[in-house]
Design a protein that fits this description.
Blueprint lengths: L3 E3 L4 E6 L28 E7 L11 E7 L5 E5 L1 E3 L7 E6 L1 H4 L5 E10 L5 E13 L10
């Protein structure tokens, strides 16, 4: 997965999370029984982080988005992330606001999405090493 972001624009990403280990034969991408089941995000925390360099500490991130999903499936402490519908569907929506992207500098960035589940296990279903930010042309639109 790679993406191009225009500085100053809104951008939405849709992440469909499936349970790790639900493919009986990972070497066989399709066939009987090889269904990717939705990952139930109830009780989980989700993090999306964008960095200029993988070696940067999180405090130097270009952005840090996160959300907590309670045991009742309710989203709390959300910054830039939401559920598309139900936590049991495993679909996360990320919104990068114009205010955030206005601060981006043209270049290539590293992005990942991590989940901490109810057992405190952490897994990274999405990692991008080439998210590109390009300069915008129109600058007269003020972000409100």
């Amino acid at each position: 997965m790679s993406a191009t972001l225009k500085r100053g624009d809104s951008k939405y990403f849709r992440y469909v999370l499936t349970r790790p280990g639900t493919r009986p034969n990972p070497d066989e991408p399709s066939g009987p029984g090889n269904l990717d089941l939705p990952f139930n995000l109830t009780g989980c925390e989700v993090f999306v982080t964008m960095k200029s360099s993988l070696g940067d500490v999180d405090a130097l991130s270009v952005y840090e988005h996160q959300m907590v999903i309670t045991s009742a499936g309710v989203v709390t402490n959300a910054i830039g992330l939401s559920l598309e519908k139900l936590a049991t569907d495993g679909v996360v929506i990320q919104r990068i606001s114009p205010e955030e992207s206005m601060l981006f500098v043209a270049g290539t960035y590293n992005v990942d999405l991590q989940v901490r589940d109810t057992a405190s296990d952490v897994w990274t279903p999405f990692q991008v090493a080439d998210e590109i930010v390009i300069e915008d042309v129109t600058r007269r639109i003020k972000v409100v």
